[in-house]
Amino acid sequence: MATLKDIMTKDPITVRPDDSAQKAAGLMKDNHIGPIPVLDQERKLIGMVTDRDLAIKVVAEGRPADTKISDVMSRDLFTCGPNDNVKEAIRTMETHQVRRVPIVDDQGHLLGIVAQADLATRTENPEKVAKTVETISQASEAESR
Question: What's 123's domain CATH number?
């Protein structure tokens, strides 16, 4: 069975807590991505910022574009390790209703990220992935209403 280090996207786009919301939004636009891991100076994962965070916590609240990422990032992190198997990533996604899972080492340094698309295209169990996507999408749709 594949481990997450075999299917993760290595060296994902990241931001620092002092970076601006505008910088994060630009990275999202230019790279066609939603969530971006937030790293401290030691490359430890300390948060995630999503396009939804920017829309709700910056735009909807009328904050300036130079709002710091640390003011709007999510600090609740749901991660896996590089040697965890695909089932663990699926379980994490289902349990926490997330579409991407950062992969960190024992010290909390970001190694990569696994998205639903990685599971769908790089695993041997597309049926289970399809069920996971459906479960997460239903919860996300209900939350956005």
Answer: 3.10.580.10
pTM of the model: 0.84
Determine phi and psi for 73, rounding to 5 degrees: -70, 155
Q: Taking the C-alpha atoms of 62, 77, 139 and 70 in order, what is their torsion angle to the nearest 10 degrees?
A: 0
Using a pLDDT cut of 90, give the percent of the chain over it.
72
Domain count, the chain: 1
Q: Each residue of 91-116: pLDDT tens digit?
A: 999 899 888 999 999 999 999 999 98
**What does the alpha-carbon distance between residue 49 and residue 21 come to, in Å, rounded to a whole number?**
9
Domain of residue 138: give its range.
4-144
Rg (alpha carbons) of the chain, rounded to whole number? 15
Distance CA 38, CA 59 (A): 20
